[in-house]
Amino acid sequence: MKIYVASSNAGKLADFRTAAREFSGVEIEPLPGLAEIPAPPEDEPTFEGNARAKAIYYSRFAPGMWVIADDSGLEVDALDGKPGVRSARFALDAGVAIKDGGLDAANNAALLAALTGVTDRAAKYRCALALGSDGSIEQVTFGTVEGEILTMPVGEGGFGYDPLFYNEELESTMAEAPMENRLRVSHRGRALRALLRRWQVC
Predict the structure, then answer these.
(1) Is 93 a catalytic residue?
(2) What is the pLDDT of residues 102-115, one digit of tens each?
């Protein structure tokens, strides 16, 4: 069984492929021709809403194929769940300049600035994953990873907020952990495992 991912992000593909190893006969591939498909707006207020909209949209370009789309991000308790669905654009929203370190570094800087003086730094990575086919949704599942936000970045691996996100199970930030360990606890991987388990039962 082949499942196509509506993303060319190498980190997301690695997450999904690692999770799929537990399921015999499941192949994960990027959606063919994705670069030529105009990106849809991601303007829903929830991860689930964006994941559903993307799965519906992209599956229409792949008749008869199974297509998954996710929306995921970071929620910080002290910030009332922000940056949430704006995780990838948090620096832009906060007016933080994007410098040589790129958008990820700017987003991390914006997060640290927002948490100045905050002691309760509990946070979670969340993922909503939708499976679509021919413009309809077949399944929606979710994955979560608990952690806390450090006061400075640690580690060079991963992407996004990984250098700031400390996870007790890993005993390190996501950016410090070896790739296999990081992928093992991935919120996207957990969402895909949940989807494949549910799909096998149905």
Answers:
(1) no
(2) 999 999 999 999 99
